[in-house]
Amino acid sequence: MNWKKGLTLFMAVGLAAGVLAGCGSDTASDKKVITFGAETTYPPFEFAEDNTYKGFDVDLSNALAKEMGYESKFVSLPFDGLIPALQSKQIDAIASGLVVTKEREAKVNFTAPYYHVKLVMVVRQDTNNVNGEADIAGKTVGAQIGTTGAMLAQEKPGTTVKEFDAITTMLQDLEAGNIQIAMLDEPVAKYYIQKLNMKDLKIVPVGLQDHTVAIAVRKDDKELLDKMNAAFEKLKANGEYDKLQQKWFGDIQ
């Protein structure tokens, strides 16, 4: 079985289990379970490796659940399917590098922010005509479906926006010359270039937007929101949050 088929099977099994889970009693352990949804091709926030979900969001969510006295499960979903899955109660929370926007705040409640990121442009090493936001106009731009990067690119005149489910596919298209710019959050761009050895790509040094990232819960689930915020304060106070930040972002320069 090649890695793509294996990952697809793993994600499908995770989805099937997660849809049935919900936030309730786990019959095996008689403990409450929180089902988190994430788009799991977004390292270092969340990704699948060795049949396991890993990343900053995964570790943070597990730590929050433990602090609250819950167990946690992760379900992999397309990014643009996360909020609908939350609203339909297939999952209990979204922990997927989700940027807080006014449009999303109308649909979900956000916890206190747990990370701040900068939206950046990634181009090929031989690109010299992309130096700032104004240079997006007239280009063929890649972005993940439903992201703030896609929204920004769509505002620029003459721009062709190609939306992707997976970051890897988008960056491969950039390497192949099928798009001219890829829009990504800076830690994710650095991870792909440095950790996954995409040395033909570079980050444009001028950032585009500063974003606040938080966990999303349903509008009517104030109890879970309050519990998560209280647990997050404890993780910051006891140093666990700082340890997780160092683990996942400390060696990305």
TrEMBL record:
Keyword field contains Signal: yes
GO terms for cellular component: membrane
The name this protein goes by in its record: Glutamine-binding periplasmic protein
Alphabetical list of InterPro entries matching this protein: Iontro_rcpt_C (IPR001320), Solute-binding_3/MltF_N (IPR001638)
PROSITE patterns in alphabetical order: PROKAR_LIPOPROTEIN
Keywords assigned by UniProt, alphabetized: Signal
Signal peptide: 1-21
One MF annotation (Gene Ontology) recorded for this entry: ligand-gated monoatomic ion channel activity
Domain Solute-binding protein family 3/N-terminal positions: 33-252
Residue ranges annotated for the Ionotropic glutamate receptor C-terminal domain, each copy included: 33-251
